[in-house]
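Email to the structure team, subject: Magnesium protoporphyrin IX methyltransferase model.

Hi all, the expression group asked for a predicted structure before they design truncation constructs. Nothing fancy, just the tokens so they can compare against earlier work. One-line instruction: predict Magnesium protoporphyrin IX methyltransferase, return tokens.
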Amino acid sequence: MSYELTRARVETYFDRTATRTWEALTSDAPVSRIRETVRKGRDEMRETLLSALPTDLSGARVLDAGCGAGQMSLELAKRGAQVTAVDISPELLKIAARRMPEHLADRVEFRASDMLDAGLGQFDHVVAMDSLIYYTQGDLDLALSSLKSRADQVVFTVAPRTPLLMAMWQAGKLFPRSDRSPVMVPHAPGGIVRRHGGRDLGRVSVGFYISHAFEVAA
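Reply from the structure team: attached below.
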């Protein structure tokens, strides 16, 4: 499946099918036990990626690539960054903008756009948390090359190649449904480091959440 087709599926899912689900998941609202593990895993992964960035981001331009409901954007703004928060879901961007504290609002620009749009400009850092997990190796490599060309540092996550995720991937291929969450495409962490260099930041596995973090430089 091409990058454009996968992107369209992701947009449909987050902007129409599951907006309310993600609004609840990214808040303090009660959720199911399964979604609670996803929430905890995402919180841990957010801290993992932030730990690879400078504590003081004053004056730095940061692209939050696939910002969703804005949790990462908020933390980046707290560190003093000027954040361009991009997502292909206008509905999630509305939630993110509504949640942003007034005293930080001037540090964050929300834009409905493809994170690979060169018109977004150059950045000091790019953060792409769980926004590249749906793409095949070829599309992932192209996306990383694009992001690396526009930033000094890129921190991002992929779905690691594990027996559980491989089983989920195969099930998604066999039983596609239009309302199903886009299937994550597992990748071997060692292959990403070989192809792009950089640093392995480690894996977060909490219940039904599993993701692997990396850092690459231009």
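The chain has one domain: 3-217. The helical segments are 3-17, 19-25, 33-51, 71-78, 90-99, 137-148, 163-174, 189-196. Ping us if the truncation boundaries need rechecking.
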